[in-house]
Amino acid sequence: PDFVVGAVVEFYRHRFILYDADEYTYSFLQAPPQIRITVIHAKIGPMLLDSEHTIREAYRYADQNEPGANANSGRVSWDHFLNVLHKFHVSLTRQEKEILQQFWDPTGEGVDYAEFCDVIFNKYINEQAPSRSAPSASPEHQPGGHHFTA
Prior knowledge:
Layout: E1 8-11, E2 14-17, H1 23-30, H2 33-47, H3 52-64, E3 75-76, H4 78-87, H5 94-104, E4 111-112, H6 113-128, E5 141-142, E6 146-147
Helix pairs in contact: 2-5, 2-6, 3-4, 3-6
């Protein structure tokens, strides 16, 4: 079950009704998808601050080890995508993972990891680290060519 107000969840044979949430949770759940993904990207960015080259290499390695014709495609499966983030100590809630998956792997064909890294490092990391060379002006974009700004 989803963790939303009104849901009944069960833990160790005990049922709980989720009857309230804090203001942040309410505003997050009611925000348009573009706002929610921007918030999640902003959360991930600082966790990867010093890892740009190594995380790109980790995704390339995962891509090489995709099964069959999927190897070296520039995409990694959703599970491999999350495994690499986990190895870099990126902690995400179930709901954040679902939102990321809807954004980055809506068809189940895998995540374009180069595009993901470009968005995270060009938008969020470089804003946090002014000593690094600034990327060319590039708005954060939604896969499929749709652009939006944060």
